């Protein structure tokens, strides 16, 4: 979308440059999503800070990716599905877990499937899930802290999914091998 530039280190607002420089150092590139979010430095900063906080949550790396991919799939965000599929692969998340979420099929691991279902219900019902839904999630071996950290993950991905929808973020070449398109 022409109203939303894709910034470089030279064109980004001054407040966004440190975050873009950090991305460049960390990834060897500035992901397109960050380049687009840089137009609103506060959004980019909030996304990065929330990402760091979520990375330190009660959910392990595999569980975090299950939440992030599930939210992105429900929201139909091709950018985040492609990017997080690659990041999940790099983090050692089994391909069958990632592929199940991408294909909207059950995950073979019952505990991860309970996480996927809980996340799905939270997103689809906008947090208005009944006590029985929470109890089912807890009975699958999850904790009350996990319940609330799912909320954190949903907030994180909602920021990026919605921003990507608005600005039409194109998938980076680095993530192209795991491109995904929302079903019609």
Describe, in plain words, how this protein is organized in 3D.
This protein is mainly alpha-helical. The chain has a domain of 121 residues: AhpD-like (Up-down Bundle), CATH 1.20.1290. 63% of the residues lie in helices and 0% in strands. It contains 9 helices and no strands. The chain is globular. The two termini are 21 Å apart. The mean pLDDT is 97.
Question: What's this entry about, in short?
Answer:
By secondary structure, the chain is an all-alpha fold.
Task: Note the topology.
Blueprint: H1 17-27, H2 32-37, H3 41-55, H4 61-74, H5 78-90, H6 95-103, H7 110-124, H8 131-139, H9 144-167
Helix pairs in contact: 3-9, 4-5, 4-6, 4-7, 4-9, 5-6, 7-8
Q: How does the helix and strand content classify structurally?
A: mainly alpha
Q: What would the CATH topology of the domain at 58-178 be?
A: AhpD-like
> What percent of the residues sit in helical stretches (DSSP H or I)?
55-70%
The string of secondary-structure elements, in order, is HHHHHHHHH
Tell me the Rg in angstroms: 16 Å
Q: For the record, what CATH class of the domain at 58-178 applies?
A: Mainly Alpha
Assigned CATH superfamily of the domain at 58-178: AhpD-like
CATH architecture of the domain at 58-178: Up-down Bundle
* End-to-end distance: 21 Å
The proportion of strand residues reads: under 5%
The whole-number mean of residue pLDDT values reads 97
Shape, principal axes of CA atoms: globular
């Amino acid at each position: 979308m022409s109203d939303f530039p894709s910034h470089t280190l030279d064109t980004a607002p001054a407040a966004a440059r440190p975050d873009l420089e950090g991305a460049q150092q960390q990834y060897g590139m500035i992901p397109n999503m960050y380049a687009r979010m840089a137009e609103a430095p506060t959004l980019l900063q909030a996304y990065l800070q929330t990402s760091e906080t979520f990375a330190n949550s009660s959910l392990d790396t595999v569980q975090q990716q299950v939440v992030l991919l599930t939210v992105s799939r429900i929201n139909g965000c091709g950018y985040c599905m492609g990017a997080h599929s690659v990041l999940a692969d790099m983090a050692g998340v089994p391909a069958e877990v990632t592929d199940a979420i991408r294909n909207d099929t059950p995950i073979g691991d019952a505990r991860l499937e309970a996480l996927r279902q809980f996340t799905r219900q939270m997103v689809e019902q906008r947090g208005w899930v009944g006590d029985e839904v929470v109890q089912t999630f807890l009975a699958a071996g999850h904790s009350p802290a996990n319940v609330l950290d799912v909320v954190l993950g949903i907030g994180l991905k909602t920021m990026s999914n919605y921003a990507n929808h608005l600005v039409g973020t194109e998938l980076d070449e680095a993530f192209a091998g795991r491109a995904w398109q929302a079903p019609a």
